[in-house]
Amino acid sequence: MIAASGMCSGGRVVNYLKSMLGDPRHSVLLVGYQATATPGRIIQKYGPAGGYVDLDGERFSIRTRVHTVDGYSAHADQDDLIRFVKGIRQRPREIRLVHGEEAAKRELRRRLQRLLPGTAVGIA
């Protein structure tokens, strides 16, 4: 099964998962990062052990094979974000980190505060 939707949380992939997760003849291929507590991460973590995932309020057993291809992402990593901020001509007065896992946001805030003293860096 290959279908587009970040973290398996919406769109047509949810319908595919609901109809195919219970059949061991199928495979789920997760490409790129799956955020904590998303269906994609749950399938990735618990699928190989015969776990389950809740989709649209219903529990589905994971009997498919689960494969992950790491290294593909449309999102910038911390180094890319630091390069982006360094390229801003006029230093921003405020930066808000709104996407990502808490530990990663805290580390990025620390790096940005060191790079841009006087700029308010907040985590939402």
Give the SSE layout:
Layout: H1 12-20, E1 27-31, H2 39-46, E2 52-55, E3 58-61, E4 65-69, H3 78-86, E5 94-97, H4 102-115, E6 120-123
Parallel strand pairs: 1-4, 5-6
Antiparallel strand pairs: 2-3
Helix pairs in contact: 3-4
Q: For the largest beta sheet, what order do the strands appear in spatially?
A: 1-4
How large is the count of helical segments? 4
In which range does the helix fraction lie? Answer: 25-40%
- Give me the secondary-structure category: alpha/beta
Could you spell the SSE succession in H and E letters?
HEHEEEHEHE
- Low-confidence runs of at least 5 consecutive residues: none
Distance between the termini: 34 Å
Question: What is the number of E strands?
Answer: 6
Percent of sequence in beta strands: 15-25%
Largest sheet: number of strands, sense, barrel closure: 2 strands, parallel
Summarize the structure.
The protein is of the alpha/beta class and about 120 residues long.
Structural commentary:
The protein has 124 residues and is of the alpha/beta class. Helices cover 32% and strands 21% of the residues. The longest helix has 14 residues, at 102-115. Helix 3 packs parallel to helix 4 (102-115). It has a two-stranded parallel sheet. Strands 2-3 form a two-stranded antiparallel sheet. It has helices at 12-20, 39-46, 78-86, 102-115; strands at residues 27-31, 52-55, 58-61, 65-69, 94-97, 120-123. It starts with 11 loop residues before the first helix and ends with a strand.
Keyword list:
alpha/beta, two-stranded parallel sheet, 32% helix, 124 residues, single chain, two-stranded antiparallel ribbon
